[in-house]
Amino acid sequence: MATTNLSYYDKATIPNAKSFRFGIVVSEWNPDITQNLLKGAVEALKDCGVTEDNIVVWDVPGSFELIYGCKKMVTSQKVDAVIAIGNVIQGETKHFDFVCEGVTQGIVDLNIAHETPVVFCVLTDNTKQQSIDRSGGKLGNKGIECAIAAIKMAALRQF
Ligand SMILES: Nc1c(NC[C@H](O)[C@H](O)[C@H](O)CO)[nH]c(=O)[nH]c1=O
Ligand SMILES: CC(=O)[C@@H](O)COP(=O)(O)O
Predict the structure, then answer these.
(1) What pTM was estimated for this model as a whole?
(2) What's the average model confidence in pLDDT over 79-92?
(3) Which of 60, 70, 129, 131 has the most CB atoms around its CB within 10 Å?
(4) Is 95 a residue of the active site?
(5) Strands 55-60 and 118-125
(6) What do the Gene Ontology cellular component annotations say (predicted)?
(7) Mean pLDDT confidence for 48-63
(8) Domain at 19-157, CATH homologous superfamily
């Protein structure tokens, strides 16, 4: 079943985020997509009370480099959660599979190894249109969904 709208959230169900600090690591591959995901994430964080100076944004070359970029964000910045933003689109070869598997497992490993949650905001799509639909198109913006997830995980981290 196709993704339902990724952008809806009920602020009444979201923890107060004004004291939280967030890191966002963004892949430069498919920048039209990843910049829309970033825009959605930042706008949602601010809508939930996060101040601009509490949002740290770093760029990395591709989704595979999100692993190292998020590790450095977690270990060198005082953040309550990290959002990893990328967009991998199937090409002619199996490279898509290895990039997707690599970044997925890498972010799993970071969540196990460290005390700062890393939220998986990586679109892994068969076509460009699928990516467009999920980064501010007809299915919403996964950046919004992941910003809300990051706030909830930052709150959970306090226990
Ligand atoms: N094809 C895509 C890539 N490929 C590049 C890798 O992520 C990585 O930067 C390279 O293998 C060097 O380590 N990356 C994406 O984010 N999206 C793609 O569609
Ligand atoms: C996911 C990728 O790295 C992919 O876009 C590269 O394209 P190709 O598989 O045609 O080399």
Answers:
(1) 0.97
(2) 98
(3) 70
(4) yes
(5) unpaired
(6) cytosol; riboflavin synthase complex
(7) 98
(8) Lumazine/riboflavin synthase (3.40.50.960)
